[in-house]
Amino acid sequence: MELYSQFEFTLNTMAKKLSLKSTYNEVGWSLRETLDQIERNGETKELKYDMLLKYGWLKFLDNDPDGAYRIFSQCSTHAIDNGILDIDELFYWAARCLEEKGDKENALNGYLSLLESSSKYQNNEELINEIFDRLKVYGDIPSLLREYENKHK
């Protein structure tokens, strides 16, 4: 019975939707699930996007922001070439990579441009909260928003 419980837990963990705070193991299991789907059903543009996003995310969680950013760049190119529009998390993780690499200005611009299109995120409160958590590192959020708005008028 113990083995069955472990198997059931593993299945429930794999089926669980990832959050931006997911652990390395959770993202790894989810990537494995995506790779299994590709093996069973063939590669679709959505599955390839999903695979690249999760692989870059794993690289980031493994403290390799340079490698992660390269993968996110491939993921972005794939999304553009294939008309994949739901790329909010990709932009978030790319900005996180830039921040970790020390490119604070471009990371900040990435976070702020995600917020600029916040009408898209009405149902993604987690993303908005994570962006604001990252912006706190940069200082006074209202003044950051005003400065960004003035630059992009």
Quickly list its features.
single chain, 153 residues, mainly alpha, Serine Threonine Protein Phosphatase 5, Tetratricopeptide repeat, globular, disordered N terminus
Short overview:
With 153 residues, this protein is mostly helical. It contains eight helices and no strands.
Architecture overview:
With 153 residues, the chain is mostly helical. Helix content is 76%, strand content 0%. The protein has eight helices and no strands. The protein has helices spanning 2-15, 24-41, 45-61, 65-82, 88-100, 104-116, 125-136, 141-151. The longest helix has 18 residues, at 24-41. The protein is globular and about 50 Å long. Residues 1-15 have low confidence and may be disordered.
Topology at a glance:
Layout (H helix, E strand, L loop, with lengths): L1 H14 L8 H18 L3 H17 L3 H18 L5 H13 L3 H13 L8 H12 L4 H11 L2
Helix pairs in contact: 2-3, 3-4, 3-5, 4-5, 5-6, 6-7
Query: At the first level of CATH, what is the class?
Result: Mainly Alpha
Q: How large is the count of helical segments?
A: 8
Q: Give helix and strand order, one letter per element, not per position.
A: HHHHHHHH
State the CATH architecture: Alpha Horseshoe
Number of domains: 1
- Approximate strand percentage: under 5%
Average predicted local confidence, pLDDT: 84
Please give the oligomerization state of what you see: single chain
Overall shape: globular
The rounded distance between the terminal residues' Cα atoms is 63 Å
Main sheet, how many strands, which sense, barrel? Answer: none
